[in-house]
Design a protein that fits this description.
Elements (H helix, E strand, L loop, with lengths): L11 H4 L5 H6 L5 H10 L11 E6 L2 E7 L6
Antiparallel strand pairs: 1-2
Length: about 70
């Protein structure tokens, strides 16, 4: 029978995952300062960004547009 209180080993990636980091901070597993330091240490990959334009249509009529638009710079 498995114990419900098994210890969890957190990796840096899982501890600072943007979807759960606030919960980890709230529960004392890490601090906001540690998270900010982790973010600051990430490499700048802004040169790798790809521009795309996505348009949703229904029966040939525009429904929504997502992506980069020159008027949003």
């Amino acid at each position: 029978m498995m114990s419900k209180n098994l210890p969890t080993a957190y990796t840096t990636a899982s501890l600072f995952d943007s979807r759960v980091v606030d919960r980890h901070i709230k529960e004392g597993r890490t601090t906001r300062e540690a998270y900010e330091a982790y973010l600051a240490a990430l490499p700048d990959e802004s040169e790798e960004v790809l521009q795309s334009d996505l348009r949703f249509t229904v029966r040939g009529r525009p429904l929504a547009t997502a992506g980069y638009h020159e008027d949003e710079s």
